[in-house]
Write a structure and sequence with these properties.
Elements (H helix, E strand, L loop, with lengths): L1 E9 L8 E9 L16 E4 L2 H23 L14 E9 L4 H18 L3 E6 L6 H4 E8 L2 H13 L1 H10 L6 E9 L9
Antiparallel strand pairs: 1-2, 2-3, 4-6, 4-7, 5-6
Length: 194
C-alpha cells in the first residue's frame, strides 16, 4: 500500500531555492502474524520551481475531484421527473386467439431491430407457462435513458415507414394484438440489472 505526503518548505537566502516542495511516497509493508510493522521507504521528488509545484498540485486536486464525481454518480436517484435516469418499460401484449405466433414473427423479423434503431434496448422477452396466458401473451422489457427518451423513441418508431409497412403486412390475416399494457419501472439499488 502506498500513500503520498506533500511537504512545502520555505528556506533562507543562499541555502535552497526560495520555495520548493517534496513529494514523499511511503510503502507500507505488512508482515504475517502479530508483528505488523510499517517501514517507510521514502522516495523524494523535489520540485524547485513554485510554478511546477502549483501545476502538480492542481492536476492532483482536479484528478481527485473528477474521480470523486465519477464514483458518486453511481449513487444518484431519479426524482421521477423523467429528465434523468435510466428507466425500464415492461410491456404485456395479449393477442387474439391463434395470433401469438404471428406476433412472434413480427417481433423476430422487424420489431426488435427497429427498437434498437430508435434508441431502445431490448432486455428480454418471455411467454407465460401456464393457463390461457401461455396461448396469447408476450411480455417484454425495454430500457431507455429516461422517460423523455422513451417517449421520443416511441414516436420515432411509430412514424418509421419500415415499421408501418411491417405492421400492415402482419395484419393481412387480421389484427394480432387485442390489448397492450405498459409499466415504467426503475431499478432498486440491489437489482442485478440496472
Amino acid at each position: 500500500m502506498q500513500y503520498l505526503v506533500l511537504k512545502g518548505k520555505g528556506s533562507g537566502p543562499g541555502l535552497r531555492p526560495a520555495w520548493h516542495i517534496e513529494l514523499l511516497i511511503y510503502r507500507i509493508n505488512h508482515y504475517s502474524g502479530n508483528d505488523y510493522k510499517t517501514k517507510p521507504r521514502p522516495h523524494f521528488f523535489v520540485m524547485t520551481n513554485k510554478y511546477t509545484a502549483a501545476l502538480f498540485i492542481s492536476i492532483f486536486l482536479i484528478s481527485s475531484m473528477v474521480l470523486s464525481a465519477f464514483i458518486m454518480t453511481g449513487d444518484t436517484v431519479d426524482d421521477g421527473s423523467g429528465a434523468e435516469g435510466k428507466v425500464f418499460e415492461m410491456r404485456t401484449y395479449t393477442t387474439y386467439d391463434g395470433k401469438l405466433d404471428d406476433l412472434h414473427k413480427r417481433f423476430k423479423n422487424h420489431t426488435l431491430g427497429l427498437f434498437e434503431k430508435h434508441g431502445m434496448v431490448n432486455i428480454g422477452y418471455w411467454v407465460p407457462l401456464d393457463g390461457e396466458l401461455a396461448e396469447n401473451t408476450l411480455i417484454y422489457i425495454l430500457s431507455h435513458d429516461s422517460r423523455d427518451a422513451a417517449e421520443k423513441s416511441w414516436d420515432a418508431f411509430r412514424s418509421d415507414p419500415v415499421w408501418q409497412q411491417a405492421y400492415q403486412e402482419s395484419h393481412a390475416d387480421g389484427v394480432i394484438v387485442k390489448e397492450v399494457k405498459s409499466v415504467f419501472m426503475e431499478a432498486v439499488p440491489y437489482s442485478k440489472i440496472r
